[in-house]
Amino acid sequence: PLMAKDAGSPLLTAHLWTLVGLSIVPGCFGWLWAAKRWGALPCLTANLLVQAISVLLTLASDSPLLLIISSIGFGGTFMGTTSLVMTIARQLSVPGNLNLLGFVTLIYGIGQILGPALT
Fold first, then answer.
1. Which of 8, 41, 44, 106 is a plausible cystine mate for 84, CB 3.0–4.6 Å?
2. How far apart are the C-alpha atoms of 115 and 43, rounded to whole Å?
3. Residues 1-60: tens digit of each pLDDT
4. Cβ of 69: how many Cβ atoms within 10 Å?
5. How many helices (H) and strands (E) are present in the chain, helices listed first?
């Protein structure tokens, strides 16, 4: 939204996060469907690549079209990443009584806190 303000489009600024949100739900289902078809690890790789490209698009230009594509790409991959990682975590064998899903959730939460602080 901050970059959209520089693009001079108040309507776009107001609705970029809406586009992200609207992209999240089909993104989750789409990535899980793809994981059943092609496997979770290749889909996670593709998911992270699409997410990285979506974020980098905002650096290329402040064009409203690129901001829209970036928002949809980010939203379509954001929760899909979590869904795919949880799918992979369920498939791993773990030693002892380690709750891997809980551990993955903890690490993800720490990353969500430290990521912005470190950048």
1. 44
2. 23
3. 455 555 566 777 778 889 999 999 899 899 999 999 999 999 999 999 999 999 898 888
4. 16
5. 5, 0
Report yes or no on whether pTM surpasses 0.85: no
Torsion over CA: 3, 59, 41, 108 (sign): negative
The DSSP result for 9-33, as a single string, is -HHHHHHHHHHHHHHHHHHHHHHHH
Q: How far is CA 107 from CA 51, 52, 65, 100, 102, in A?
A: 19, 20, 34, 10, 9
In terms of Cβ atoms closer than 10 Å to its own Cβ (0-12, 13-18, 19+), residue 67 is buried
Residue at token pair 């107001």: 14
